Amino acid sequence: MNKIFSVARMEILDIRRSKLMLSLLGFFLIAAIVSVVVASIDFGVKADAYKTYTDALAASGITNPATAPQLFPLHLMRAAIEYLEILGALFAIILGYAAIAKEKQRGTLSLLFTRPIGNFTLVLGKLGALALVWLAFVSIVVLATMLTAVIAGHAQLSATDVGRLLLTILGAWIYLLVWTAVAVSIASTSKKLTTALIVSIVLWLLVVLVIPQVGDTMDPDNQVPGGLFKSLQIAKPDETAVLANFTGYNSARDALEISSVTKHFERYTFAFLGIKDQYNQQPIGTVWAGVFINALALWLFAIGTLVISLFTTKPKTLLRTSK
Amino acid sequence: MKSLYVFTEKSICRLSVLSGTRPYCDTMNEFAIVTKDLTKSYKDVVALENLNLSVRQGEIFGLLGHNGAGKTTTVNLLTTLLVPTSGTVEIEGVDSSKSAKDIRKLIGYLPENVQLYNNMTTMENLRFFANLSGLKKPEARIKEVLDYLNFNSHYNKRIGTFSKGMRQRVGIAQAILHNPSVLFLDEPTSGLDPEGVRQLRDVIIRLNADLGVTIFMNTHLLSEVTKTCSSIGILKGGKLAYQNSMNSTLAEFPDQDSLEDIYLSIETAD
Questions:
Q1: Highest CATH level, class, for B3-268
Q2: Cβ–Cβ of B109/A117 closer than 8 Å?
Q3: Of A3, A114, A117, the CB nearest to B79
Q4: Which of B172, B211, B174 lies closest to B188, judged by CA?
Q5: ipTM value of the model?
Q6: How far does the CA of residue B220 sit from the closest CA of chain A (Å)?
Q7: Domain coordinates of chain A in residue numbers?
Q8: What is the pTM of this model?
Q9: Which of A10, A108, A113 has the CB atom closest to B115's CB atom?
Q10: pLDDT single digits (tens) A198-227
């Protein structure tokens, strides 16, 4: 156990001293904070426009204006979550790849594996360190964005909101762990490090960008801005009846979407933050019931990729592929 | 710096004068390294074939051979970095096929072109390797080893700022931290300037004399072998073509002027 801690401590120290890594994480944090500031300003603009509108209506003697725009503080985090979904995954790949690639490039593997360490010591230490880094990073990002929302957006957080944020941190942490483990596995098993990086990036493109985009594009309701059924003024029961004729098509679309861990992460976080309308202001229990399958999928992806990384990052594989 | 040896009926204990280290006791084996029919193949290519080698306790053994003769493969097999296709390796009587982890406790290893963690200090690097070797709170031991290698003034400097020769010293330090009984050096003088070569040679000889460490080294520099090694082996096409003590070798080839001539005559012989 002490040897695993030693590897983890060395990895954290290495990341702390890497200007590139710190720059990437710092850039992300700033981008997330800016996104909340922009969202807060955007809400302020809408609120001002509404006030101008109601004043104009009142001047005309109309007293039943449209519903006022309502501030849901957690909605201000939407862009930050999308950054985690896309850029966070990319950074997780870079950190996971670097954890293995630097050992191969430096030629330190032979020094490590002539020590009396177990087969899993190196990978457990590396993954443990990266898990800690991501937990700290996600917590800082979520905390910083919420503080920004409170300060810049004058948002007020309830105890339930804090619970939602904690669940969001947990989901984001697991999501980043999945990508880290994927990158570790690919870097370990690839003979050429450039190949490992290219394969990891192609996988990221497919899973993070292409598959969710194709899934969204295949959604019949997304064919028209504002929603196909809404624009055709088709009520919900009729919509369900229409979609019943396309079960095969919808199953294919669902299968495509659930193959992407990113889609599960998005559904999970958007539900808990209330960004998805059907879960907005719903009790946590209700949201949990709705996204249980996505939470389970996130865990299964994490367990699966971590187990694969354990068995692909053994001394035998690393030494064979570092020649 | 000297070591005190205590001989008992079944063991030899080395009480190193480096403080903080426990007495190192070995089962008394005549040979520190023994290989039997050691073979390593990569698909159809035989890199090493039926190597039968024995290195006595306390020797400095030099393994010579052209590029591709199988020297690095041999070191990798002896240090458990590679698994033999067939045959056995015994280090201090421990069979590598049965307990590679136990062998790793007995050996120190300095690879060719040693690479360490450049953005870490000497102390951080050595603490890491000491922990992996199972040493707890190794700071005192690290300072002692650096002192022994006349390197303590670089204790808190980052490896990235070091010359090749300085890195090699840290490499030696990491290899001897845990008081190994056999030290493997793969082309230790590769890339060093003449001053660096001389310093490293002095360190190797001192380590052997002071601590009684058996040293196994691969090298191309025959002049270094002459000055350093007490016995040699010559690999040719993955097979051991010759093995003897340095003195016997020189006596065996009286008509040859130098080890270089002896080496070339063995290399070119059918």
A1: alpha beta
A2: no
A3: A114
A4: B172
A5: 0.83
A6: 21
A7: 2-321
A8: 0.85
A9: A108
A10: 999 999 999 999 988 887 777 777 777 777
